[in-house]
Structures are given as C-alpha cells and as structure tokens.
Amino acid sequence: MLGNYYFAIVGHRDNPVLEMEFNTPTKSLDSSQGRESYKRDDHRHLNQFIAHAALDLVDESMWTTTGMELRPSPEWNFSLPYKYMFKQECSHGVRCIKTSYEVRMNRDKNKLAVYKLYPPRFNRRPAMPHTFGLKHRWTYFLRTLPNVQDILEPLEEAISQVLIPAIVGRKCSKLDRDVLALPVRLGGLSLSNPCHEAAREHASSIQVTSSLVEHIMAQTHQQPDESLIASGRQAVKDGKAEELSEIADNLKQIASRKTKRALELAQEKGSSVWLIVLPLQEHGFNLSKRDFRDAVKLRYDWPFDDIPSVCACGENFTVDHAMICKRGGFVIQRHNELRDLEADLLSIVCTDVEVEPVLQDITEEQLSRGSNRAQDARLDVRARGFWDPQSSAFFDVRVCHPNAESYKDQEPQQIYRIHENDKKRLYSRRVLDIQ
Fold first, then answer.
1. Do residues 313 and 327 make contact, with C-beta atoms less than 8 angstroms apart?
2. Cα of 374 vs its chain's centroid, Å
3. Do residues 146 and 202 make contact, with C-beta atoms less than 8 angstroms apart?
C-alpha cells in the first residue's frame, strides 16, 4: 500500500483526540536480488504507539464503563480499513455514546478487527478507581516515554498532598506514602507512585512488545507468536512481584515498630480482602466514606481524632476498648458474624446444624486440668455428619485484636497459637470424652 500511513484516536462525535501521519514503507523491487526493501525508520516509533494506545483504551473502556465488557465483534465495517472500536450501546439497541473511542489505522482490509463493548457475560470485579481509572490516564506515557520521572513530580505531589489526605483523613509522611504505594497483598492500598513506576513500566513495555516490534518492522502481516508474548508478560509479572517484595521488606527494616507490626498484620492471608471485595449492599460490603477511613486507620494503627471520650458502658473510650467492650464491641460483633456465616455454610452440606449448643453435663468424668467444667458451657456451632455420617463435629470461633497492648511483644503467629491452644485446653477433652 503506497502513500501516507494515517493513524488516529477518535473521540466523542468523531472529534480526533490524536492524529499522526507517517510515510508508508516504500516498496521497490531489486531485480538482481528478487527482494523487496522497505523504509522502516518511522515505523520503529509507530509500532509502540499503536500497541499501547490500543491497549490503554481497551483497559480504560473495560474498567470504567459500568456493566460493559470488551470482546470481538462479528460485524465488519469496510469503510475503515482497520479499526478498534470502543462504543457503548443502550439495551434497546440504539447507539447511545457515553464513552466512545476508535483507533483507526490503514491496513489490509482482509485483516480487519472490530471490538465493541457488550453487556458482560460474567460478574467482573470492580477495581479501585485510582488503579483502573486515574492511573490508566498516564499509563501510556509511562510505557512509551523514557526518563519522565521529573515530569511526573507535580502529579505525585497532587496524589500525596491532596488525594491521599482526602481518602484517609490525615497527612502522610514519606514512609506512609511508600507504604500506601505497595499492592494490597503486601499491606498497601495500591496508590502507586508514578515517579517510581516510570522506569519499570517503560522497561516492561519494551520487553513485552519486542515481538510486535519485529513483526511490524519486517511488515510480515502475521500475528506474533503468542507463546513469546505470554512468556514476556510472565517474566515482567515475576520481576515486578520480586521488586515489590524487596521494597516491602526494606520498608519493614526502616519503619518503626508500630508500622512494621501493622504491615505484618496487613500481609496476613485474608486480612486485605475487604479492599478488593465486591461492594454488594445486600451483604454489607459497601462501606461509607467514614467506615472506609476508619478501616484504613485500624489497618495501619493510626490514631483517631474524633472518637468519644466515654463509652456507653461507662468506661473510657479508646480503640482497644471499642474492640473488647462487652456491650457490643467490634470483636464480639465480628465473632457473631463469623459464627452465623459458618453455621449457614455448614447447613448446606450437613444435617442438624445448631448454633451455640449447650454441652452435656459432667457427672463422674475426669477431665484434664484447665477444662471448662461449667454446666452451661457451650461452643459456637455443632454439625452432624461433618466427619462421620452420624457423628457430631463442634466448631468454635475466636476473634482477637492483635494490636492490643497485651500483644505488643508477640508475633501474629504466636497470638494465633495462644488462642488455639486455649480453646483446645478448655473444650477438647470434654467434647471427645463426653459428647
């Protein structure tokens, strides 16, 4: 195809967001060698632009368009030789453009690809607005432009001094900022620092798109080997995970004892699920702004400035007291939630499930020292047929506040083991010998 090579990103009402024009490969036949030669200098830059512009638009459209997902369309539109299409349609079939982008590129008509947004075939996990909304507005620049750390400093300043204080309700130190930039699984909030990510994103971009670069420069008109792309992505993923783990370990070394303890607890399995769970109102997973702010402060053991001075029970109100108050402290509330949830799940697979069953009375039995001998002793859940067809299995839930002052010198695993052994000491012999 001779002439100019035109590329554009078209937005709302066909207004061009970005247009670029390149010289197409000039075809000349060398009769003596029987080979074609191409000019490829311009295309060396064109390929990365095309790959990343299309990928970024796909990501943003998928994650920021409510209730829609992107997948190949069976439609063919030959009015544009090559196009990626990102449009939202109403349920009645009439086009109602709310977010609309088209990535157009002159290419062989027989290799036309059309992508459109459709109602999802499965429930998609909503992502944090910063991670899959705001962040993707600068992802393209991080991937394609080298040495842009200085340019991104005003952006990082806005995130650290405006966005984060608005979310967590307090100004963060440099150490706090580095902690919040960690992934959720490593104890952070995934509020990444663009200045720190710039070099890694650019290097990852070059590594992943290397096979695409070679095919576009060679003008082979063939798809690159998917295994090469997959291996490149996996290598980038593994390298990023290793780098972030090292950063988390280094932060623990320089952090105070209190911050180190908060990071260790936040990295425990299951402790960060509330940050990525579906915010379903019917299950109580949708937190208000105040609830979210308080949960973040509890996560990092930050002080509260707006709590009452006296509890309803008459005791001085502190964070520790709010956890263990006998009149509805958070530990008691959480215990009851887990107990009821466990009973509901057991009722699906077991028969005769009972909540807080009273244990049989002790007559002449000899129990080990430390066993609970109270006549009204009870455990949390009993289910028949869990291990054996006609045998009863007992379950007990223990919830604790690991940031309490009494646990400050103990590791999380030590705290869990203490509570486990305490439960076994109280009830194991009475259940096994009498029940």
1. yes
2. 47
3. yes
Question: Is there a contact between 115 and 58 (Cβ–Cβ < 8 Å)?
Answer: yes
Structural domains in the chain, CATH included, are 4-25+41-101 (3.30.450.70), 126-272 (no CATH), 327-434 (no CATH)
For tokens 């994103």, name the residue: 201
Determine contact, residues 232/238, Cβ cutoff 8 Å.
no
Tell how strand 35-37 and strand 28-30 pair up: antiparallel
Asked if residues 381 and 366 have their Cβ atoms less than 8 Å apart, the reply is: no
What whole-number percentage of the chain has pLDDT above 70?
A: 65
> Which tokens in the block code for residue 144?
């394609």
Look at residues 120, 122, 124 and name the one whose alpha carbon lies nearest to residue 132. Answer: 124
Length of the chain: 435
Segment holding 79, helix H or strand E: none
With the CA atoms of 32, 35, 39 and 45 taken in that order, what torsion angle do they form, in degrees rounded to the nearest 10?
A: -160
The neighbouring-strand residues paired with 70 are 117
Q: Which tens digits make up the pLDDT trace of 179-217?
A: 999 998 898 888 888 888 888 888 888 888 887 777 777
